[in-house]
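User: Reviewer 2 asked us to show a designed sequence for the structure in our supplementary figure. I'm pasting the structure tokens here. Could you produce the per-position amino acids so we can include them in the response letter?
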């Protein structure tokens, strides 16, 4: 929902470039949606960076601190969230971000994120495994009151790992991938859209836009 993938790219392109390595979409697609430690390990291994995973993680976090507060919402997100909230449709967030990272990314959008019933993050003590496993989505569904059956849940995702996890949880998934993502990685979603602005709620039994 937050357009942060380009911010991650800025950070990792800069770090990897320093070692003569290219952080491109082939690498990016391997880590999108993963928790930070696992993503850093994958980047280091795939590109053969001459630093430890911990060093890569720490440096990227320091750089992210300086830019994450600039994160914007994806087009159409504000409209959809306020529409669902107005119609009393239970909504929640399942993100791979840590608490600290999530707070930075949502600095400019606190009012919107206050509309969610709850938020499950990557460092949640109850979370055993992150995306692409179904655990984040199942935990998120369980925390609704009453708990939501997976088959009644609709997930919005931009990452292939997120789509895989949501489908494994038994949920329907609307995928809104970056246009640069490999087309082969865009095929799994229940519905694939170019923008959240194209979403028609009534297709999934939700109230139509006014």
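Assistant: Here is a per-position design you can include in the supplement:
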């Amino acid at each position: 929902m937050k357009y942060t993938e380009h911010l991650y790219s800025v950070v990792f392109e800069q770090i990897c470039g320093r070692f003569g390595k290219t952080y491109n979409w082939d690498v990016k697609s391997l880590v999108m949606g993963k928790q930070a430690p696992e993503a850093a390990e994958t980047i280091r291994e795939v590109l053969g960076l001459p630093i430890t995973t911990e060093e890569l993680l720490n440096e990227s976090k320091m750089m992210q601190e300086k830019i994450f507060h600039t994160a914007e919402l994806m087009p159409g997100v504000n409209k959809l969230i306020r529409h669902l909230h107005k119609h009393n449709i239970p909504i929640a967030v399942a993100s791979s971000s840590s608490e600290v990272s999530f707070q930075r990314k949502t600095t400019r959008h606190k009012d919107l994120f206050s509309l969610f019933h709850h938020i499950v993050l990557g460092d949640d003590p109850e979370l055993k495994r992150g995306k692409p496993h179904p655990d984040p989505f199942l935990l998120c569904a369980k925390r609704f009151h009453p708990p939501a059956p997976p088959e009644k849940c609709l997930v919005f995702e931009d990452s292939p790992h997120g789509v895989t996890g949501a489908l494994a949880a038994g949920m329907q998934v609307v995928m809104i991938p970056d246009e640069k993502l490999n087309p082969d990685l865009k095929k799994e979603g229940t519905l694939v859209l170019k923008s959240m602005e194209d979403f028609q709620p009534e297709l999934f039994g939700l109230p139509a836009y006014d």
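For the response letter, you might also mention the following. The chain has a mean pLDDT of 95. The first strand starts at residue 2 and ends at 3.
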